[in-house]
Amino acid sequence: MWSTIVAIIRVQWRVEMRQRVLLWQVAPFAVMALVITGLAANARSIARTEVGPGLVYVVLVFTTLLLIGRLFSTESSSLSSPSFAMLAIDGSAAYLGTVIALAVELLVVTGVVVAISGLLFHFSAMSLLVATPSIVVTIIDLTTLGVLFGALAARPGQSAALLPLIALPSFTPVIIAGERLLTAAVTHHGAGQWWGLLILMSVVYGGIGALLYGVIGEL
Amino acid sequence: MKNLWWRALGPVTLISLLLTGWLGLWVTPRAQEQGDFARLVYLHPAEAWVGIYLSFGTAVVASGLYLWPRTRRASVDLVAASAMEVSVVFLVLTLVTGSIWGRPTWGVWWAWDARLTSTAVMAVLALGYLAYRYSFEDPTRRAQRSAILALISAVNVPIIHFSVVWWKTLHQGATVLTPGASIKIHGIMAWTMLLSFVAFTLCFVWMTRVRYLIARRAQEGASARLASAIAARQSESGA
Asked: I need a labelling partner for B41 at 20 to 30 A (CA). Which of A30, A202, B2, B163 fits?
């Protein structure tokens, strides 16, 4: 199982190293989206600490969808999914490998987004440091859910609008919890109860994904 | 006997809905604080019951039955799809009537209230299921994948619900199913509200059955067209 997970992570990262989509497309998109949403929300005149955390997560959700859409469009076009099934690769290992690879890629983009949000919304370095564990767990949750829904939505010729439509409602609790914890960190208030929800989501959807990923791939 | 029940269902549903309307609009008294707007209590909670719990629940149970090998039938899948379509209708109606009720109560058409928000998210969830379902050509793949999506969504429904409730709420508490069993509605108002639940439940059964019959006929028609096309091709190649 572990060798499969490592192999999948290597494949995903090798694709990224060759295409450099994360560096040249996804990260600039995320930064641009953060600036535009900040302008749209008129973050200059309203309380930045109230609007900033929400905008950060809106951008991260769109970035997640972008990365997942790209991952599964690459897999559909290169026929790597059918070859997984033919090679009898363990579905749960494939799922965990994909989640880990994508979560690391997303965390890199998140690092850039959070650093720039500190400049744009005047979050202190210390508050961002305090928020780091919750940001990491939120990104893991988004990836766990996103890969599961990405597998469901993935088909050659499938409309790109389907993934956001089926995934966004399920992202809602994660976004709320992540936003509350980031707001708590920048305003120095406690919001410990939201940790429970984040961890519950990781466990529930990690379990469902590990169980169903292989089954979905075969249907 | 079974046929008679199904034939009577439509008229019985219509009569119960008309009776609810008559009692709700003319027989029951105006409320002290909310005036005539309180009459929405005979409409809005019953719609929410059908949209959030009954239809969505039926779709999820039918999806589970479809995934279970012993109960896997095309008819069960069609029941799931039909119930989800009815769920979308009632979820939208719940949002519309909730918004109409919210305007005089809260002063705005839309508030970032927990129940409004979670109902809107559920409506998108149900719409996503339908969009996903109708993106497939092959009926077997459509049924299997849609059933998985319905079950995954079902796991998420309580999480969405509680997350939004913890986040923010303005909505009034339960009227009937209160924690201390202290019912806040009495007399003719309580009976009318109870009747509205019965009427809307019957309406759900009738709508789901009609939608199921339409879907089944469409599927039979598609199968018949495919069979005749194959037969025509075979006779062409034979000639």
From this structure: B163
